[in-house]
Amino acid sequence: MNSMPIPRFLEALEMAAEVYIEFNTGLHPSSRLLADRAFVSTLIGSITPDFIEKTKEDQARFKAVAKVVGLPDPLVPYRVKQGA
Questions:
Q1: Can you tell me the distance from the alpha carbon of 55 to that of 41, in angstroms, rounded to the nearest whole number?
Q2: For the chain, percent helix, then strand, then coil, each to nearest 5?
Q3: Is the distance from CB of 17 to CB of 40 less than 8 angstroms?
Q4: What's the superkingdom here (predicted)?
């Protein structure tokens, strides 16, 4: 299985963590929920370009792992999945 370069993935994780911290420090009652969603959206948005270039087999493996850990499908916009 070809893998995404580790530095690129770590960069995506770092960016997502920064967004999470920014949202989680808010005083709004929903700050934690917003932080969780912002983390996932940022992480998926950062790795999607690499994901598109993967083989069909690698994409299927990633989707299977994403489903188990509760991540959205990186090729389907969030609003489309929600039926909006």
A1: 23
A2: 70, 0, 30
A3: no
A4: Bacteria
Q: What percent of the chain has pLDDT above 90?
A: 0
Q: Which two tokens stand for residue 28?
A: 């709004």
The residue with greater pLDDT, 25 or 6, is: 25
Angle 6-10-12 from CA coordinates, rounded to 5°: 120
pTM: 0.53
- CB contact burial 15-54 (16+ within 10 A = b; e otherwise): ebeebbeebeeeeeeeeeebbebbbbebbbebbeebbeeb
Q: Count of CB atoms within 10 A of residue 13's CB?
A: 15
Q: What confidence tens digit (pLDDT) does each residue in 30-42 have?
A: 888 888 888 888 8
CB atoms closer than 10 angstroms to residue 63: 15
